Amino acid sequence: MVLQQFDDSWGRFSSPLFKTYTLTNFRDILQIKKLSQEKQFEIEVVGNVLPFKTNNYVVEQLIDWKNVPNDPIFALNFPQRDMLKPKHYRKMENALKKGLEKKEIQRIANEIRLQLNPHPAGQMEHNVPQLRDGTKLYGMQHKYKETVLFFPSQGQTCHAYCSFCFRWPQFVGMEDLKFAMRETSSLIQYLKEHPEITDILFTGGDPMIMKAKLLSRYIDSILDADLPNLQTIRIGSKALAYWPYKFTSDDDSQETLDLFNRVTRRGIHLSFMAHFNHPVELSTDAVKAAIRAVRGTGAQIRTQSPVLKHINDDPNLWAEMWKKQVSLGLIPYYMFVVRDTGAQHYFGVPLIRAQEIFRDAYQQVGGLCRTVRGPSMSSTPGKIQVLGVTNVGKLKAIVMRFLQGRDPKWVQIPFLAKYDKKAIWIDDLKPFSDKKFFFEDGLEKILSKDMKSSGSDDSTVHGGPP
Ligand code: SF4
């Protein structure tokens, strides 16, 4: 079913109604009714632990139902049995089969969630900045000198949830694990106290879930504050992929574009950090019109995605995605390694394989696509890029470097780890020759200082630059 048609030659659309599907109503989806009862129950079991939300655009325009259950966008949005480890799956399955009370199911879900490393890279402990007067700013993070992350409290959800998302605790009602901030006054105060900050990244959830009026309250007060060092406002969002009508035909789409225009007219760079996981997300008329609309405001769109088993672990697919992006005027920016949280065992691609995928894709594309960097891990010490495998004497080693570091002096220094084909995260790797990686002592010092004062991580999957 086609959601809606072009209205006129400018590529504007009539507005479809946004309809979400969650655990409570996913069985209403016609295509879901055709799946076996067993498959539907699996969605329910896993969806009780990991966040689950999709919408009518994803269901009707992105998922190829003939290819379900193997369709990548289906796996991206609908919980799959293997996303939980068998012991966790059985626990929730039993709870549901016994018909336990909602409260008890919630308790069991939280118990499982806490075993899934809900806040990787020490975000809760190490990345909370504070004002000079000692006020801690829990809705912000500041890890790299020039960039601060801001989590507007009304932007803590998304048009649909990605089943791999490392921000998943934000969506499952674990209030203690949420970052969120309502007022901009503390953000502005912090920026005044830290003139080294040139970039603000709005992240979430997805800030583009906010109505234009709300978003403009945040952004306009930043513009009004006239911060001399502010160069860039970044918005991390998957709205182009999950609900492109936000920029074309929702009732506040023009207001949203006007806001973007106000930013760029002030001479501030607006960088839209768009999250695309698969070429199909770039294929609809709706997304193409939305991209034109956003670019028409003077904003740049940079793209990023993790490399994910079951979704996009194929170099040809990445090459196709980057080429499509460039032809639509987007700038390929990052390929990430999926983070050490949630369903990492399901989506995780070993580092060596991730680098092969990156290399083989990169070799197929022209110079304009080669703005992309990766594969990169957004880890506690910083963003670590895997460069490849080399021989040192008779031994193989993995070569890496920092793209961003908690200490800027670490950046661009190559370092080696022992070859390990199975490693999927920096913590799995051992230094090639020394006892410790070169940054470990420095990191320890920074983290212990952090515990006393501040820190940050700008590595949201769609919020980058990680
Ligand atoms: S990756 Fe982005 S869009 Fe997807 S669930 Fe996470 S925050 Fe939301």
Automatic annotation (TrEMBL):
<keyword id="KW-0408">Iron</keyword>
<dbReference type="InterPro" id="IPR003739">
    <property type="entry name" value="Lys_aminomutase/Glu_NH3_mut"/>
</dbReference>
<dbReference type="GO" id="GO:0051539">
    <property type="term" value="F:4 iron, 4 sulfur cluster binding"/>
</dbReference>
<keyword id="KW-0949">S-adenosyl-L-methionine</keyword>
<dbReference type="InterPro" id="IPR007197">
    <property type="entry name" value="rSAM"/>
</dbReference>
<dbReference type="InterPro" id="IPR058240">
    <property type="entry name" value="rSAM_sf"/>
</dbReference>
<dbReference type="GO" id="GO:0003824">
    <property type="term" value="F:catalytic activity"/>
</dbReference>
<dbReference type="InterPro" id="IPR013785">
    <property type="entry name" value="Aldolase_TIM"/>
</dbReference>
<protein>
    <submittedName>
        <fullName>Lysine 2,3-aminomutase related protein</fullName>
    </submittedName>
</protein>
<keyword id="KW-0411">Iron-sulfur</keyword>
<keyword id="KW-0479">Metal-binding</keyword>
<keyword id="KW-0663">Pyridoxal phosphate</keyword>
<dbReference type="GO" id="GO:0046872">
    <property type="term" value="F:metal ion binding"/>
</dbReference>
<keyword id="KW-0004">4Fe-4S</keyword>
